[in-house]
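ugh ok fine here u go
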Amino acid sequence: VQYEKVLIYVTFYLNLYPMLQESQTGNIAEVEKNLSKPLTLSVCIPAFNESSNVIELIKRVSLEELNGAVIIEFLVDISGSSDNSEFALKELSEDIPILQVVNVGKRDGLNNALDRLILLAKGELIARIDGDVSIQKGTLASLIREFESERVGIVGPRVKTTKAADGLMNLVMNGEYALHHYISKISPKTTNLQIFRNVHVGIPSGFEVDDILIQQQIEAKGYCSKYVENGTIWVTPPISFNQLFKQRIRCISQQRHYSKLSGRLSPTQSPINSIHSLLKGILSREENAWGMFFFAIFELFSRLYVTAKESLMGHKDFTTWDQVKGTKEVKWEEGES
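structure:
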């Protein structure tokens, strides 16, 4: 009887093994097939009076080795810009022929600019890059590598802040982005730089958010979001608590507007995410733990302010885009893309 059982197991294994090998070989061949053919990438940059940084951004991105993707076009929306953006970009297009400039003549908001660029994009992947960021060298390649998995639909890197102030202000700003880093490890949050599959997403009119809505639409199509912490971008932070307060009011208003229309919370809007991330940072002796603590207090005050003001306004949303009065000059450092 034992002999017969062993014989059955051996026979089963011998019949099954070729099938397993065929399946594994097929999977490997499929991966190699996917990697041998680079994905096409459309780089979309919405910018308002940011010619100096956008020019530098395009030059550096065009020189990046992406290892898995090829840039087929740069699409830049400069609608309403009053600086020399159009002239500077047209001059740059002589060296980079795949550069295309979009200008509808008036400033109609980040969402509309993004929507136009997404509709124009022909690549299999879309890289949405804000006009006021700088990118660490190798970040784009790290992000694109995640698309080797067919489950991944959208990716984003870690966001850090350049030093724009000293003392407590700098401590709080580092704390904000450290807190968002821990939140993104729980619930992936993509912003400022997003790379996603071109699966016909759009931003309906009436929404005053963009990154959260793009991520939600990608996830609704069955894909997952991925936070890539070994990729980094830098943003220029507010330089005073007054500017930070205005920024937080704008961001919180956008989040509330999103949750009302979509019926779901954004990653940073969830109290559980914030509390867990704050405790995680403190207990792991994060170098920006005190900054995280002070920012959490500042954020709580800002949220109470927005709640009170919207209640007094009859729960009417703030006009968030109109609160953006200017743009930021970005200083590029060695080692950035």
